[in-house]
Amino acid sequence: MKLAAATTMAGTLSTPGYALPQSGLGGIPVPPHERIVLDNGITLIVIPRPEVPLIAFQAVLRGGALGDPQDRPGVAALIAGLLDKGAGARDAFAFADEVEGVGGSFAASAGSESITIGGQFLSRDHELMLSLLADALLRPRLDEAEFDKLRARQIELIKATKDTDPSELLGAYGRSFLFGRHPYSNSVLGSETSLAAIQHRDVLEYHRTQFGADRLSLIFAGDVDTAWLKKAITAAFASWNKALIPLPMPKQPVRSRKRKVLLIDSPGATQSYFWIGSVGVDKRYPERAAVDLVNTLYGGRFTSILNTELRIKSGLSYGAGSGFTRGNAAGEFSLRSFTQTENTIKAIDLSLETLARLKKTGVSREDLDSARAYVLGQYPLTLETAAHWAAAMGELELYGLGPEYIESYAPALKNVGMQNARMVIDKVFPDPREVTIVLIGDGAKIRAQLKKYGPVTEMSLTQPSFAPES
């Protein structure tokens, strides 16, 4: 069976209808859809799902934080926060009132490699939906007063998080220390230092040079009139040109072969929050299914090895987990947990021991089958609604992946064997002697003991950046 063939309207055909997976493989088929590339480079994907009178949309603009000035991360995030704070003829209040008045949703956010706008409207409000989206992308006001308020709010949020829940910032500190000069080291949201340095002109310049038709993918899923939408998108975006500068692409980071430690000193803290990481794999890693199954066993569910040791058996923590971040280049593998200050070294030692045990003994066939059943049960739940499919197709476009990335996943999970698991344990999961350890805690009580793990770099939690001073 073939999916409906894509047709063109004022555009050029990019891809014919995608073929559904063969029956019997047990995969999740990508729904019938049309994929068109307009003359100016915009990719339009339409997924008709008329059973519910809703339209979910995802607008993915490639670039994201990779396009930030190296010394001023946070520009893309500020732009994302400003896209619905006035656009076209609507000021911030009028824009929000239009969305809320029809019970819709409209939200923008920045990631390492994209700025994404997602939302959902009743199908009867499709004209308003497209008007708001086109205004936000083509005609955002990027008002200076709104910029000043948003930047100040973000700086205060970081400061407040340090006071109330510093564990929320562990990833920012961890990636900064792990990736060094690589763009993945920068916090997408920026730091107190970088946000203070960003000027209104930086936001205007980013929009002028990095918003462009060739970077945009538009995905609509739901009760949508496909013929109307293709005409309307062509009319609304036909005058938009390509971005003025090339799309930034990350190079592959290099994995460190030495262990290093960063202590973020928080005097008087009663708990230590720790993050242990290494360079992992990218989106295209061929053994993705095996990586996911092994990580499920190691730190991806409540009964994982890591959580069992740190919470259930020892009582050192209320929770521990691990995971991979994957992009066009390899992101991080990391595990994280927290414990009482006096148990910091015990908890880190135990975490490293679990990683060493995984590397040495691997996983059993019984455990692998258990993880397989767990992931196979969870995966379909992520692809149930029109909004799920809009987001999933947006991800495929962002990373240049085909529908087989979704359709072949369940069959790949079923085919993971002991040899596949052993291979990713050897190649992907880090040696505990080669990891980066980052922790927030009371330096006076744990500083001396941390030296056994390797060279210790230190900074204060009150320092207004996520990187230690060089």
How many β strands by DSSP? 13
The residue fraction in helices comes out at: 25-40%
The number of domains: 2
Q: What is the CATH architecture term of the largest domain?
A: 2-Layer Sandwich
The H-and-E topology, N to C, reads as EEEEHHEEHHHHHEHEEHHEEHHHHHHEHE
Mind describing the biggest β-sheet? 7 strands, mixed
Which runs of at least 5 residues are low in confidence (pLDDT < 50)?
Answer: 1-25
Structural class: alpha+beta
What is the first-to-last residue Cα distance?
60 Å
Q: In CATH, what is the homologous superfamily of the largest domain?
A: Metalloenzyme, LuxS/M16 peptidase-like
Shape: globular
CATH class of the largest domain: Alpha Beta
What name does CATH use for the topology of the largest domain? Cytochrome Bc1 Complex, Chain A, domain 1
Tell me the Rg in angstroms. Answer: 24 Å
Which strands sit side by side, in order, in the main sheet? 1-2-3-7-4-6-5
| Beta strand % | 15-25%
Name the average pLDDT: 93
Number of separate helices: 17
